User: Which sequence fits this backbone?
């Protein structure tokens, strides 16, 4: 905790209510964060108030602040420009810092007689023809792949005519994506014409290519070259078919960027879709470690992204509008030299594009953490449903099991990143009382769990790690029983109960604010049902094990010379008490761990 917090807040409360830029510094006078404000006093004082409402990254930044500077500006727009300039100049640790590491891409046409078309990230000195450069590697790669498929050009490493007839045609020939010149049955003239048509397609686009191919087809028909005309017709159909596929990501707005953001609380991802001429031409994503407040993140990302010599389109579609959207529009308009619009659509085609963009941002984060976007989406849905501050990556779930108050036990299971983490499962035997009291049992278990946390918190593993969410098998009674335990240990972890219906199926979750129905949230319903079944299975399994051990202890260990080890060996060998009772002396002596004297004692015990 920052010991200077009250002093910093006192100084922040003395700031003017003017627009400006604030500069946070650490004890070494190094700049660690730069921000802008419409009213300096209001914005800066928020950092040094209650820390409970801040994301983890903000809390860490505040802990490192030793003092702050500020610069008063005439307007909020001036503050935006100054903030952008200072961030570029000082690259503070806690600001979003984007790196422009995108290179140029080229379409390469080899210098061989039998030319091949490929896409390359760098231009080599090899006498080949390079078309470009293009800023979007995605666009170049996609276009070259389309051209090779449509005009059935080879993408393998075989050389012609050297490799004619040496090997059988590959799969691309059988799925009609290559004419297989390697067979030697395709004439050079026919092959070279396909290469020329593919280059016309790449340079002119599908519309121009269809027009030129149609003219060639009609000319071939007039010359009674019907076979050639039929092949050109097939290429026209392939171009049209590819164009139809592209309409899935085509939009009515000719030029625009779509930007969406996804965060799991620890990392964030900005995904950008770029459209030109109504067609998706490029996409990028930027991973942000330890995100801060979303409005700050989005504003800084937009200014940082379009400061990296990125072309500013007329329309920028966002998943939400930041508070300073008017200022950003003005800044982008001045930068591009034409009016720029920021929008956050709620329905229709544009809203669907934003949704698709956000799913791709979630997928990018999912790949980093080794999970699927489906697992990510259900955790995100659970976060929104329960009103959590972050995605619950580490969940602990508890259940109590007993039989009429005997052999009271509890089971704890753990889900990490949406999957069971069986190495972290724990079993508890209720020790503080006899009889049946599920509320007291749950309170005891949580008390022991967080006592372990206090002793092992430095390790950050096992009980030394705090969960993001606790789920109890039960209703509001169980939740109410454990809340004093969390307060006792000064632990701030959200706790909810999983409520079952009369058919023993999960129907809702309950917290201090009442029940939340999950029936209409199919993925959350399935996820919680599996978790509740799993914790019940684990707890009742431990209870049955305890009862089985009790049976052994109440019978076999009463025999002289038979302890827990021999009792366990007997039960493992004979399976049941009845089989031990019916065994003769020789069979008992043959059991592992048994001696002649202990076998006689067991035999005499059951045959008094």
Assistant:
């Amino acid at each position: 905790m920052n010991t200077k917090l009250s002093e910093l807040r006192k100084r922040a409360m003395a700031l003017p209510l003017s627009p400006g830029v604030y500069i946070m510094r650490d004890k070494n006078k190094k700049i660690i964060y730069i921000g802008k404000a419409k009213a300096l006093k209001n914005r800066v004082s928020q950092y040094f108030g209650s820390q409970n409402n801040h994301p983890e990254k903000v809390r860490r930044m505040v802990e490192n602040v030793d003092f702050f500077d500020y610069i008063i500006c005439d307007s909020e727009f001036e503050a935006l420009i100054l903030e952008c300039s200072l961030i570029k100049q000082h690259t503070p640790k806690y600001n979003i810092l984007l790196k422009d590491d995108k290179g140029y891409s080229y379409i390469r046409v080899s210098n061989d007689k039998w030319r091949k078309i490929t896409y390359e990230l760098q231009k080599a000195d090899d006498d080949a023809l390079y078309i470009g450069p293009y800023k979007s590697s995605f666009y170049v790669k996609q276009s070259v792949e389309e051209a090779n498929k449509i005009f059935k050009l080879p993408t393998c490493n075989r050389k012609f005519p050297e490799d004619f007839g040496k090997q059988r045609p590959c799969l691309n020939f059988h799925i009609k994506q290559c004419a297989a010149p390697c067979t030697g049955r395709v004439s050079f003239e026919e092959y070279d014409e396909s290469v020329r048509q593919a280059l016309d397609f790449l340079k002119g686009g599908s519309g121009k290519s269809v027009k030129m191919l149609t003219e060639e087809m009609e000319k071939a028909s007039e010359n009674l070259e019907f076979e050639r005309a039929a092949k050109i017709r097939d290429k026209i159909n392939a171009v049209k078919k590819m164009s139809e596929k592209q309409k899935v990501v085509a939009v009515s707005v000719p030029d625009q960027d779509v930007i969406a953001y996804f965060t799991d609380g620890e990392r964030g991802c900005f995904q950008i879709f770029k459209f030109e001429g109504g067609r998706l031409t490029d996409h990028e994503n930027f991973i942000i470690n330890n995100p801060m407040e979303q409005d700050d993140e989005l504003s800084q990302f937009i200014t940082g992204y379009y400061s990296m010599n990125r072309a500013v389109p007329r329309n920028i579609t966002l998943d939400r509008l930041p508070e300073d959207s008017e200022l950003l529009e003005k800044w982008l308009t001045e930068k591009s030299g034409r009016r720029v619009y920021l929008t956050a659509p709620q329905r229709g085609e544009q809203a669907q594009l934003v949704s698709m963009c956000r799913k791709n941002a979630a997928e990018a984060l999912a790949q980093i953490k080794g999970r699927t976007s489906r697992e990510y989406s259900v955790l995100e849905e659970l976060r929104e449903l329960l009103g959590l501050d972050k995605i619950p990556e580490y969940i602990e779930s508890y259940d109590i099991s007993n039989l009429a108050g005997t052999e009271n036990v509890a089971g704890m299971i753990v889900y990490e990143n949406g999957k069971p983490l069986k190495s972290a499962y724990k079993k508890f035997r209720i020790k503080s009382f006899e009889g049946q009291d599920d509320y007291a049992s749950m309170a005891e278990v949580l008390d022991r769990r967080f006592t372990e946390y206090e002793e092992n918190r430095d390790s950050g593993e096992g009980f030394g790690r705090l969960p993001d969410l606790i789920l109890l098998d039960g209703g509001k009674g169980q939740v109410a029983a454990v809340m004093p335990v969390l307060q006792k240990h000064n632990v701030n972890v959200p706790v909810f109960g999983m409520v079952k219906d009369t058919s023993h199926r999960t129907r809702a979750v309950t917290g201090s604010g009442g029940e939340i129905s999950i029936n209409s949230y199919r993925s959350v319903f399935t996820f919680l049902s599996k978790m509740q079944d799993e914790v019940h299975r684990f707890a009742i399994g431990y209870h049955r094990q305890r009862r089985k051990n009790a049976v052994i202890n109440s019978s076999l260990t009463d025999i002289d010379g038979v302890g827990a080890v021999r009792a366990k060996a007997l039960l493992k060998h004979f399976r049941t008490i009845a089989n031990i009772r019916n065994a003769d002396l020789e069979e008992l002596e043959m059991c592992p761990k048994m001696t002649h004297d202990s076998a006689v004692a067991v035999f005499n015990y059951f045959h008094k």
In short: The chain is about 45% helix and 20% strand. The first strand starts at residue 20 and ends at 25. The domain at 559-606 is CATH 1.10.150.20 (DNA polymerase; domain 1).
